[in-house]
Structure formats: structure tokens, C-alpha cells
Amino acid sequence: MSRISTHVLDASRGRPAENVVVHLQTADGGTLDSGTTDADGRISDLGPDALAAGHYRLRFEVAEYFAATGTPAFYPVITIDFTVEAGEGHYHVPILLSPFAYSTYRGS
């Protein structure tokens, strides 16, 4: 099982954001893995089973999602930088999305 998962919810539509491409990257922008959100807006298995402690990034390609829904939006890409600590388990990094704002938190 991967140590990284995400969930993208579209707050402006009140539903999950399906078909959002998400890249798991190293701090310098190298891509480790990519996935696409399912009908529930989730990617439950992103990246390898083990990640070294360090700085990582999730890059959410939201321009295509908003274009597909016919919604003008300000952010074409959302990047979330986070730190993986040694000995910690799973990291769930969701975003709450709207055309002109977003928020995130460390989920469970």
C-alpha cells in the first residue's frame, strides 16, 4: 500500500472532482508517480510503498477539470508541499477546491 493518498472535492459544485490528474513529486520537481481521481474524487494509492523522510509535493492539474465542467478558474495548477517524517505511516493530503480558492489539510 502506498503511503500517499488524496481526495479532491469541488466545493463550488458540492461533489467530488473526478478526472483530476495528480503528480507525486520530489522537492526538486521530479515525478515519482501520477494518478487520476476516480468518481469519488480519490486516489488511494499514489507513489511507492515506502518514501524516505523529506520534502515532497503533490501537483494537482485542475485546469483540465475546470475546462471540462465549463467553469472559468484562476488556478490552472495547485501544488501542495509537505514533509514526510521518518517512521510515520500513511499521508492523506486532500484539497477542497473552487474556481478561485482552495484549502488543504493533513487528513487521516
UniProtKB/TrEMBL annotation:
Keywords: Hydrolase, Purine metabolism. The keyword Ligase does not apply. InterPro entries: Hydroxyisourate_hydrolase, Thyroxine_BS, Transthyretin/HIU_hydrolase, Transthyretin/HIU_hydrolase_d, Transthyretin/HIU_hydrolase_sf. The keyword Hydrolase applies. Its EC number is 3.5.2.17. Gene3D superfamilies: Transthyretin/hydroxyisourate hydrolase domain. GO terms for biological process: purine nucleobase metabolic process. It catalyses: 5-hydroxyisourate + H2O = 5-hydroxy-2-oxo-4-ureido-2,5-dihydro-1H-imidazole-5-carboxylate + H(+). Residues 1-107 form the Transthyretin/hydroxyisourate hydrolase domain. It holds the Pfam family Transthyretin. Substrate binds at H7, R42, Y105. It comes from the Bacteria. GO terms for molecular function: hydroxyisourate hydrolase activity. Belongs to the transthyretin family. 5-hydroxyisourate hydrolase subfamily. NCBIfam families: hdxy_isourate. Homotetramer. PANTHER family: 5-HYDROXYISOURATE HYDROLASE, URICASE AND TRANSTHYRETIN-RELATED. Catalyzes the hydrolysis of 5-hydroxyisourate (HIU) to 2-oxo-4-hydroxy-4-carboxy-5-ureidoimidazoline (OHCU). This is 5-hydroxyisourate hydrolase.
